[in-house]
């Protein structure tokens, strides 16, 4: 599934990443059909100093190609929003690559608005 997300990862990498999550701040929700994983979303909550309330960040979200347009993504997104709101989040964000225009249309249809911000990233170590 990670390959469909353009981030191929080994099962061991995923296991190690999941082991680092903190249940009170991090959540991974999974959609299954017939015992097979067809989608997931990861969401994290964190307080910020620059704005009131708690920010929720979606850091991973993918639905397999065959399961798209069937409500799976919408259900995962709404479940992540509900989980975050239950932890005090007052807003939620998702970062999506410029080339993912289909995903952008989906987010907008769910009430998300684009921003005029540019993301900067630097590797450490």
TrEMBL record:
Domain of life: Bacteria
SUPFAM superfamilies named in the record: Acyl-CoA N-acyltransferases (Nat)
GO MF: acyltransferase activity, transferring groups other than amino-acyl groups
Entry keyword annotation includes Acyltransferase: yes
InterPro entries: Acyl_CoA_acyltransferase, Bact_Acetyltransf, GNAT_dom
Pfam families found in the cross-reference section: Acetyltransf_1
Name of protein: Acetyltransferase
Domain annotation N-acetyltransferase: ranges: 1-125
Keywords: Acyltransferase, Transferase
PANTHER family from the UniProt entry: AMINOALKYLPHOSPHONATE N-ACETYLTRANSFERASE-RELATED, AMINOALKYLPHOSPHONATE N-ACETYLTRANSFERASE-RELATED-RELATED
